[in-house]
Amino acid sequence: MKSSAIRPIALVLSKELTITILLLLGVSFVVFTILFASPGDPFSVLLEGQLSTAEVRAGVREAMGVPRSWTLQYLFWLAGMLTGNFGTSIRTGLPVLPEVLSVGLNTLILTIGSLIITLLIAVPIALYSAVRGTDKISWPLTMFSYIISALPIFWLGYIAIYFFTHKLGLFPLAFGFSSGGQKYRWLYQCLPIFVLGVGNGTISEVIRFLRQEMGRVMAEDYIRTARAKGASVWKHSFKEGLLIPVTEIVASKIPFILGGAVIVEQVFNWPGMGRMAWQAAQDRDYPVIMGIAILAAVFVRMGSLFQSVVYVIVNPRASKE
Amino acid sequence: MTAAPTLKIEDLHTYFYSRDKEAFIRSVDGVSLEIAKGETLGVVGESGSGKSITALSVLGLISARPGVISGKIGFKSDRIQKNLLQDLDDFVKLTTKGGKIMAVSKDVVGWERKAERVMNKLRGKEITMIFQNPKSSLNPFMSVGKQITEAIQLHTSMKTEPEAKERALTWLDRVKIDSPRLRFDNYPHGLSGGMCQRAMIAMALACEPSLLIADELTTGLDATIQSKIVDLLLELKSQLGITTMLISHDISIISRLSDSVTVMYGGTVFEYGPTKDLLSAGFASKHPYTSALLASVPSKQSIREKGYLQAIEGDVLDTINVPEGCRFYGRCNQVTEKIREKCARHEPDLREIGSGHKVRCWLYFD
Amino acid sequence: MKNYSQRPGEISESWGLPIWKKVDRVDLAYVGYGLVIVTLVVVSYILGAFHLLPRDPQDIDLGLMMAPPGTAGHLFGTDFMGRDMLSRLIVGIQAYFLPGLLAIFIALFLGALIGVLAGYWGGKFDTGITYFTNLVDSFPRLVLILLVIAAFKPDIYYIMLVVGLTNVPVVTSLIKGKIQFLKQKNFVEADVALGVPTRTILLKHILWHNCRSLLIIQATLGMAEAILMETSLSYLGFGVQEPTPSWGNMVQSGANYFMQGKFWPSTAPALAILFTILGFHLLGDGLNNILEDKRNA
Asked: Which of A111, A129, A131, B303 has its Cα between 20 and 30 A from that of B231?
């Protein structure tokens, strides 16, 4: 990449970053509105939990008066979040942010791992269909991907666990992350990644999208030229036909995968933010669920940003805008 | 013909099966032509006459799956001599019912594998093709220079980057692109249409192929650029003596650049002969279609006199429902009573009526 | 050399071909299967609503636990408490059917409304809509629902409201795109020039004639999603509670038995989910292929 190309790329990226920030602000706004509208007045809980000492709390309550102004509450809350204060969990009393971040990491591993699995399945099928067109194999493959996408993922999880524990002769007393001393423990820990990767319900759409994009690119004029000059069609079609569509579809499916993670973490007792969210919903633990909602949105927007970055680097025309 | 021609197409048929209409679309329906070494053959015709498909058939670039090609495409260069369509028929099975073709089953994989085995050695190296719309025909994700060096590294003995780059730069210069070193790193969207076309020409010729096919080279370019490209080609032609098949619907370009001309219509060849004979105003024996084509180009005189444009009446041929007799019968303005019956019922074959001049018309056959 | 000749003049026009020749057989199969499923769902919903069940879904029969399908009087067998599986499955549909319709209705109604606004009067709406679309897409649906559950209560109608709202951007952009397409083809201009009243243009010409296939397809996909959401939530314990059956909580309560090798209590509802969601997906995709793409062929 030439140095002269860096400047326009940086410009485009800073534009994308600004948009991301605006979106995250919107996210915080939506979360706030939901909590604000809640009948239980979670904000007194939240805000009082966020502010440090009793005097400060009393002072703020007085300053804000009755009824408390909505915008002020929002700003306080937002300011709190930006300084890293997400409140404390109602259930455990611990500050929310560090907890959520540490389980968020586990979910991140789960998400990325499962995305890789999904791609490993979807990409070969999509490419094969794009190149060969409708074939004897293509219909069973399509049917297969439809069925996989309609499977309830929790049931798939059960099947995986059963197969693992019974067929491989293992007997986990607890399905926990830290159950010790079993030979296949590491493999068992990979199981949720496989289950989420296969059963997240997006496979048929991913295949369809990738095949469509690759098919479209294969019909382009410049591929015809590449063929005519005896060059490798794959080399020429890869960027627009595979790389960019993959980043696009991955970025757009991250929300879906995160949703699936909530269930998978439940099935396998994986200590991620999905499981924490489930617990928080049961306990009406507002600060925790709020933190998780925001972190999830951050993950999604990071994925989107990543896609923009790849697009700008790969596409020489992008930086011209 | 003393030496074997570089390209000899014999009775080429390229059909596409349409499931909607349960019939073949007969894009190329019996085309035979020859190009001698060093000769430039112009192929002229309206859109839909099958000229591009003929060229694509030669290169094996017919991408529509239910396409069938029959005939013989003989190719001879210094290094290799081959029928490009050999044995491909074996991969096609037709299901017919009462003379009507119901279904085509083509072993696509087998066909492509066989065809590719032959064509892979030839494409880019022995036979190259350049297309219209140069801007979209170049990979927008790769710099122009890189695309040229890719071809050079694939097909010539210059396998290293610096060697290939040198050669590419020489050629960029040869096609009259200004500041070749700068343009080398440009992307196609940064180049004008004319420059892209020059780059495509450089890319095609840098590997010194035995046959160059140019499909509507100048269509889509501005008029002034068009004539510059034609000048460039004339120059390259005299310098290199490269065998060319030049396809265009623009008669003026054909007349400037080609040694011989083939006139195509409705998937067949109507007339063939040396350019100076066919396209000059004085020569009498010309297919009615060719005459009509020539007449439709406004001359200086007709512009001065503000005369009407001479269009050819009627519509382009329906390539599915091909009529029984001569394909031009409905639109021909030179039909005489003597031959009307023949024109309507029997398709004339291509016959030689002068030295190297062939025509497919009943007018000239008694 | 093969002879590919055929007699001229024997070509049928594409309009004359019957639909099963024009259209991919596969798509017809998809739509057929989908319609079967839709019928089953609707019929089951009605049966469930009027309690016209083969057996009482709460009827415990400890002597006949986990009977396989086909056992006397139990077409689909029984669950781990001897309750009739078929009746429970039928009642399970109650949990998602009406709420699903709510979600679909919200998505289509609001989506069409905003889509028409954006597409027809365009311009300044555009950036706002893109922003909101991206905003809504930033949330994983399930997490958002959990947030709503924590803030309010685990009421399936609230949840479906959320599902419906989060689907609005998709419908909006589809309708907007369609309108822009129509504008590009000058249909709208022609209508206006002919003096057609705006309400007619919007309702009859645009929405009914041009967008209805799109809306139907979104409805099928919306129902599929509603089923997915409801079953996931009831699996997680947030929906209908035991002993009232919902497909999700049925799978969950059969979990322990599954691990002991007794698959049926969990598998029966799981298969129900699978085949039903599959039906809606195939219906949507099949209709999409038939109605949207092929028309241009």
From this structure: B303
ipTM comes to 0.84
Q: CA of C20: which chain B residue's CA is closest? A: B20
Q: Does some domain include residue B75?
A: no
A257-287 as b/e, with b when 16 or more CB fall inside 10 Å?
bbbbbbbbbbbbebbbbbbbbbbbbbebbbb
Distance CA C65, CA C60 (A): 9
Contact (CB, 8 A) for C287 and C215? no
**B320 and chain C: CB distance < 8 Å anywhere?**
yes
Q: Structural domain tally of chain B?
A: 1
Distance to chain A for C119, nearest Cα, Å: 23
Continuous segment of H or E residues that includes residue A57: helix A54-64
Is cis: bond before C265, omega within 30 of 0? no
Is the CB of residue C270 less than 8 Å from the CB of residue A155? yes
Please judge whether B139 and A315 are an interchain contact, meaning their C-beta atoms are less than 8 angstroms apart.
no
Closest CB to A231 among B143, B154, B200? B154
Shortest distance, CA B262 to any CA of chain C (angstroms): 24
Q: What share of chain C is helix, strand, coil (3-state, %, to 5)?
A: 75, 0, 25
Which chain A residue's Cα is nearest to B200? A225
Cβ separation of C143 and A262 shorter than 8 Å? yes
**Is position B107 within any domain?**
no
Neighbors of chain B by Cβ distance (3+ pairs < 8 Å) = A, C
Residues of B whose CB is below 8 A from A215: none
Domain ranges, residue B313: 268-364
Residue A293 token pair: 């909602």
Chains that touch C (3 or more CB pairs under 8 A): A, B
Among the partner-chain residues C1, C6, C17, the one whose CB lies closest to the CB of B89 is: C1
Backbone angles phi, psi at C241, to 5 degrees: -100, 155
By CB atoms closer than 10 A (0-12, 13-18, 19+), residue C62 is: exposed
Let me know: does C11 contact B320? Beta carbons within 8 Å. Answer: yes
pLDDT of residue C13: 38
Residue B280 lies in a domain: yes
Please measure the distance between the N-terminal and C-terminal CA atoms of chain C and give it in whole angstroms.
32
Q: The sheet that has B40-44: what strands, in order across it? A: B127-130, B211-215, B243-248, B40-44, B260-265, B268-274, B357-359, B351-354
Residue with tokens 């279609």, as numbered in its chain: B289
Residue B16 included in any domain: no
Q: Give dist(CA C35, CA A150) in Å, integer.
A: 17
- The nearest alpha carbon in chain B to C294 belongs to B20
Q: Nearest-CA distance from C8 to chain B in Å?
A: 5
Which pLDDT tens digit goes with each residue over C153-210? 788 888 899 999 999 988 988 888 888 888 888 777 787 788 777 777 777 777 777 7
Question: What pLDDT, in 10s, does the model give residues A235-279?
Answer: 999 989 999 999 999 999 999 999 999 999 999 888 899 999 998
Phi and psi for B10 in degrees, rounded to 5? -120, 115
**Phi, psi at B268, each rounded to 5°:** -125, 170
Quick one: tokens of C291?
A: 């109605």
> Looking only at Cα atoms, what is the longest distance across chain C?
77
Count how many Cα atoms sit within 13 Å of the Cα of residue A103 in the half-sphere of its side chain.
27
C195-228 b/e with 16+ CB inside 10 Å = b?
Answer: eeeeeebbeebbbeebbeebbbbbbbbbbbbbbb
Residues of chain C with C-beta less than 8 angstroms from the C-beta of B68:
2, 4
| pTM for this predicted structure | 0.85
- Determine contact, residues C83/C102, Cβ cutoff 8 Å: no
Is B105 an interface residue toward A (CB < 8 Å)? no
Distance from CA of A4 to the nearest CA of C (A): 31
- In order of A53, B264, C252, the CA distances from B131 in angstroms are 76, 19, 62
Cis peptide before C54 (omega within 30 of 0): no
Identify all chain C residues contacting B23, using CB atoms and an 8 Å cutoff.
6, 10-11
